[in-house]
Amino acid sequence: MIVVIPGLLYVFLKEKNPKKKIKLLMPHLNSIVQMIKYTILLRQMKQIGKLLDEIRKDWSIATEENRQIFSTTASIEHKLTTIIAVTVYSGGFFYRMILPFSKGKIVSNNMTIRLLPCPGYFGSLDEQVSPNYEIIFILQVFGGFVIYTVVCSTKSICLMLCMHMCGLLKILTNKVMELTNDNDEQIVQEKIVYIVENQIRIKEFLNQLDQFIPAIYLIEVFIQVLIMCIIGYCIIMEWEESNGMGILTYVIVQLTCLIGTFSVCYVGQLLLDESENIRQAYITLKWYQLPIRKSRSLILLIIISNYPIKVTAGKIIDLSLVTFINIIKTAVSYMNILQQIT
Prior knowledge:
Layout: H1 4-14, H2 18-43, H3 45-61, H4 64-103, E1 106-108, E2 111-113, H5 132-177, H6 185-209, H7 213-240, H8 244-283, H9 292-296, H10 299-305, E3 312-313, E4 317-318, H11 321-341
Antiparallel strand pairs: 1-2, 3-4
């Protein structure tokens, strides 16, 4: 709030240029939205704790083969989180520290103005004199990196939970494919019981995720479209001003947004793919090799497999790679509209 409130006051009370208003509004919108996401997660900490306990339980009872599957999905989540963290902090470093210094001091009406990462309106406080300038500068940099930490942590938690579900679906697919490997009725019965129990556990895990993941991802999609639109607009502005460092900074920030959005949609695509694999495993199952009574018990499971397990944004938008392309198209369209009206 120390950074956001003075920044918004500056945008709406002091800045008169509409193009600069749009440019200055971007970091404050991002900060507000990220804090909303973080608040949602904090309100669901008890639920998240239960999900983490479920993950620990799954690891503790998993066979060596299943642990390998969990390790693979966890490795994907770790790589995505690492890439997100590197790009987020790199973009933040350039935006909060390199960009203000690269523009240097501005002389206006015989007054030297030292730039801040986020210009703000501080009332009677003169932000240009020392040590006010240094304190405000440090607070804005620190505040920015707090927001970047929130971004990385919220994405990491959501990705971890979704990727664990991918592992559960992969294990279930393997068990379905192994169902006809034995002809002994007792063994087949045990396998069917195991499959049903896992199907129920996956459904319960998904229901718990649906209590907060759709809300977070709806906010994520909305803010990413808005920010990518504004950043694209900022790149054009910096290009017109021939500001090489500004272009580089906004390109890095844009790359950060693209990677963050891609990671969410990619995990959504993995869930859809695993759901499709389960469906294919059921419909290609040689059920006629099973005892008649046992094959009948598969009917409900086959019907359930036709309803894919997926991650949604607000239970409105199914997240997949197709959604990622649509998000980019939407952001570009809004950027063109923004450029025309300003």
